[in-house]
Amino acid sequence: MRIIKEPVPGILVVDQELVALRLDSTDPVRLVYLSYALVTRGPEHQILPSVLLDDWGMEIGRLDLYRWIEENGQMFPRAEVFGTDPFGVKTQYFLRDLELSAKYPLYAFAERNAASASAARVNVILIPDDLTDEPQRITRPSDIKPPLRKADVEWWRVGLRQDTLDFLRPSS
Questions:
Q1: Which end of the chain is more exposed for a tag (fewer CB within 10 A), N or C?
Q2: Is 108 inside a domain boundary?
Q3: Is residue 54, in this structure, part of any structural domain at all?
Q4: What confidence tens digit (pLDDT) does each residue in 1-31 have?
Q5: 155 inside domain
Q6: What are the residues whose beta carbons fall under 8 Å from the beta carbon of 48, sequence distance 6 or more?
């Protein structure tokens, strides 16, 4: 069962334990594949969804799954989500076990068919801007569509040549 992944133009910037997604709408050939985890109530376990089965056994897949949960999740607590955890272990949860209002932990893959266990947890999204000299933390841009809109990340505007994540480290 393949987890749901959204192709997004951009690159991953990795600096030790920090991982950022640098969006790049000017180069649609360079893609990063994003997966949005759902989080359980209480222990906050995560599932990278593959498919949802509603109360009648109807399958909901692809990115439609997130919209369906947003619109119907409270009414159908017995619907089941199947997928894997971020380490690649198959798992499933009823919607009643999930924190439906939680932001989605964001995971990225370099390839569409990459295994779940190869996911990189993304904490920051960088938006390149030719008018920006210094990195600036910003609120999420209004043109960002779901499910990325609900990702649990920080948003930063950076210069076109910004290729390190030093600005994210606390200064000593």
A1: C
A2: yes
A3: yes
A4: 899 999 999 999 999 889 999 998 777 789 9
A5: yes
A6: 3, 4, 35, 36, 37, 83, 84, 85, 86, 107, 116, 119
Distance between start and end Cα atoms, the chain: 46
Q: What torsion do the CA atoms of 11, 16, 19, 23 make, to the nearest 10 degrees?
A: -30
Report the length, in residues, of the chain.
172
Residue in this structure with the two tokens 């932001």, named with its chain if needed: 103
Considering the entire predicted model, what is its pTM?
Answer: 0.94
Q: 84-138, pLDDT tens digit by residue?
A: 999 999 999 999 999 999 999 999 999 999 999 999 999 999 999 999 999 999 9
What kind and span of H or E run contains 157?
Answer: strand 154-158
* Domain range enclosing 124: 6-168
What tokens were used for 13? 């910037």
For residues 19 and 7, give the distance between their C-alpha atoms in angstroms, rounded to a whole number: 17
Domain assignment present for residue 1? The answer is no
